[in-house]
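Re: that chain you flagged

S.,

Sorry for the slow reply, it's been a week of failed gels. I finally had a moment to sit down with the sequence you sent. For the record, here it is as I used it:
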Amino acid sequence: MTTTTTTDNDLKRLEDLILNGQKIIEHRFNEIDNRLTTMETRLTTMETRLTTMETRLIEVDNRLKVIENGQAEMKADVKTVQKDTTDLKIELTEVKGDIKTLDSKFD
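Prediction finished late last night. Pasting the structure tokens below so you have them in one place:
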């Protein structure tokens, strides 16, 4: 009987060791799972922020294109104004010439 009792005690201690080992392993797996969940949450937050930044960069790019188009239009308008100014100078010169001609005829 002593052999059976010792074996039963040994089996009980072995079972307890296995159960404690399983609990420790389960606890560590839970810790790892929690850490992974935290990392996943942080990555999701980063992805959201990156998406927001990308959207903002696209908006900035679109605004820059609008500004560039506006500058091109302004350059065209300036050229037109310069041409009109040149035309007015030519016409003014012609008018002055006509006035001189009239003055000389009047004299």
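What I noticed first: The helical segments are 2-106.

Talk soon,
D.
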